[in-house]
Amino acid sequence: MKIFYSPASPYVRKCMVVALELGVAGRIEKLAAAANPVNRDQTVVASNPLGKVPTFLTEGGEALYDSRVICEYLDSEADGRMFPREGRARWHALTQQALGDGLLDAALLARYETAMRPAELRWDAWMKGQMDKIASSLARIEQLAGGLGERVDIGTITFGCALGYLDFRFPDLDWRAGHPQTAKWFEAFNQRASMQATLPHA
């Protein structure tokens, strides 16, 4: 198995945390990628027309994307611990994954607006809209955090990667100040070996 990889991508991180938790990370070869929304990496495009990371190649050479599909594939190849199979637990985990991914989507758009768009073309209202999505997502995670406990599934992993990305790319946001339950949960969750092994870097 292979994965087109960027050490700064929170979505790649999500996949690798799942792989580590499932004990299959050693079977995955990391392929360097320079995915970019403007100057697209044609090596990635050859396997994924969207040109995004993560893009995953199965042992049979089939390309899978995006992180949601890859994580579920890895879970199916292992012992199926990351995706509850039925009932409320499944829908809670999937909805929490969607919330964490949505937070990440907004954070990435905000990051692109400041890091990639020329200053004279930046749109303040757009930036505010993305930051508002981050704020409302954090408020919802704060409501949930007290009940997350020691759960390790696709929902909590996505939350962990999303919060880690905020620390990485938005260090001045100080999200912990207004979200004490989330901060307490993340402090413990972030100490997992899978999270420490995948800390993002440029």
Automatic annotation (TrEMBL):
InterPro entries (UniProt xref): Glutathione-S-Trfase_C_sf, Glutathione_S-Trfase_N, GST_Omega/HSP26, Thioredoxin-like_sf
Residue ranges annotated for the GST N-terminal domain, each copy included: 1-82
Keywords linked to the UniProt accession: Transferase
Pfam families named in the record: GST_C_2, GST_N_2
Gene Ontology CC annotation, any one: cytoplasm
PROSITE patterns: GST_NTER
Protein name from the UniProt record: Glutathione S-transferase
Organism the protein comes from: Bordetella genomosp. 1
